[in-house]
Amino acid sequence: MADKTKTAELKEQIMMTEPKGVKALSKEEIAKADEFCVGYKKFLDNSPIEREAVRYTVELVKKEGFVEYDADAQYNPGDKVYYINRDKAIALAVIGKNGVKNGAKLAIAHIDSPRIDLKPNPLYEANNLALFKTHYYGGLKKYQWTTLPLSLHGSVVKIDGTRVDINWGDSEDESCLCITDILPHLAQEQVTKPMAKAIAGEDLNVLVGSRPFDTEDEESDLVKLNVMSILNKKYGIVEGDFLSAELCLVPTFKSKDVGFDASMIGGYGHDDKVCAYPAVMAAINTQMPEQTCITYLTDKEETGSDGNTGMQSDFLRYFIYDLANQDGVEGYRALSKSTCLSADVNAAFDPTYASAYEPKNSSYLNNGVVISKYTGHGGKYDTSEASAEFMGRVRTMLEKNDILWQVGELGKVDGGGGGTIAKYVANMNVDVVDLGVPVLSMHAPFEIVSKTDVYMAYRAFSVFFDTNF
Ligand code: MN
Ligand code: MN
To answer: What would the pLDDT profile of 126-146 be if each residue is shown by its tens digit?
Structure first.
């Protein structure tokens, strides 16, 4: 082999090289990634909405020795607890040798995903069809949600105070629901409109029935009555109960490997269960850390993190205050020394839509976890931006542990933008940076991720929990 030129040597020393991506991984490591994703796909399929994600997480962690948190109990290093917030968010904590005296380690992902919610008074009949009125949740392209098989998930609270959990349309032998669209032949007006206006929010009506109730009586609204009587038989609910309900429509399909090489996973709700599951698994596999490690799965990220189950709520703050109290330190001091990985997805570079991205600062499928120093939009509005110092610590940690990672900005500077929960965590006086998985077709009913990236997220959260900052 020819000797390297002096210039080549210098380049090697002081210039960045092209990321090797998945080529840097051994066969064994790729096999581990594939194995890890078997569990991930189960998590994804069982967690289309936040309530279900919480339930499934409890199921997973209970088997691994986590017990329900009791604010009045005393905990010892190595103890593992889970703490549920209104059935829609959940914190997992592994108590450290030093508790939270030197701060907690936080990995925070969200378990809500864009979807179609029912309006409080949804059911109506028009032209002998029964339909639901809806109000979409989160940022979605409305046209993507028509002509898809949909299932209904959520909870209804009856007038007597009892709650019924609903899951209609997922099993093979159960019917699905569907939002219709107009045929191309009659869509001359629709197809000339800008995409955002082609289908209006008020047009996302869901077809839920077409046969009238079986009766000799001459009554109106018999198709609607028939639907209501089916729901009444199965769930014991009446129409008024929709007023105290949270019902969501999500795609019926399960996750599926993508590509002839099965290197990717397609599914509904990768954003952000693809970070939630690795963060849960990191908590499960962390034993006796120095600092208390907390995985928090929050709700309402897709609509701005407001509300008592969103990241802007004081739930996590109070939890850390409680833990600090046990350790004999002020809550705000524990919080001030805490560090956080805001575990959320980023947009992977898509060659078909290359012009939307700035290639040097975009994330790519199979290049590992994405670190986003800042999110937001325009001139760095609405972002906490991680400091050079914190970026430095995280970078060193990832390099030392051979974790595939990359940096990524969301698209071009003036191309739009988006945020994560990072800024709300930073506002609590915590050092935080975004670290997550690159996703193709983000916010679509069928999003795509790479298996090795999912596994790298798990490794990143694991070493974060094990590293002393
Ligand atoms: Mn997200
Ligand atoms: Mn999102």
So the answer is: 999 999 999 999 999 999 999
Where do we find the tokens 């999003």?
447
Is the pTM higher than 0.90? The answer reads yes
Crossing angle of helices 27-46/50-62, nearest 10°? 120
Q: How far apart are CA 250 and CA 314, in angstroms?
A: 29
- Beta carbons of 185 and 107 less than 8 angstroms apart: no
* Distance in Å, CA 375 to ligand 2 centroid: 12
Strand 245-251 vs strand 80-85: parallel, antiparallel, or unpaired? unpaired
Ligand 2 ion: residues within 5 Å (CB): 271
Contact assessment for residue 145 and residue 139, using Cβ atoms and an 8 Å cutoff: no
Closest ligand (CA of 345):
1
Shortest-distance ligand to the CA of residue 110: 1
pLDDT tier, 18 (very low <50, low <70, confident <90, very high otherwise): confident
Peptide bond between residue 70 and the one before it cis (omega within 30 degrees of 0): no
Whether residue 1 is predicted with pLDDT greater than 70 in this model: the reply is no
395 C-alpha vs ligand 1 centroid, how far in Å? 22
User: What does the mean pLDDT of the chain come to?
Assistant: 96
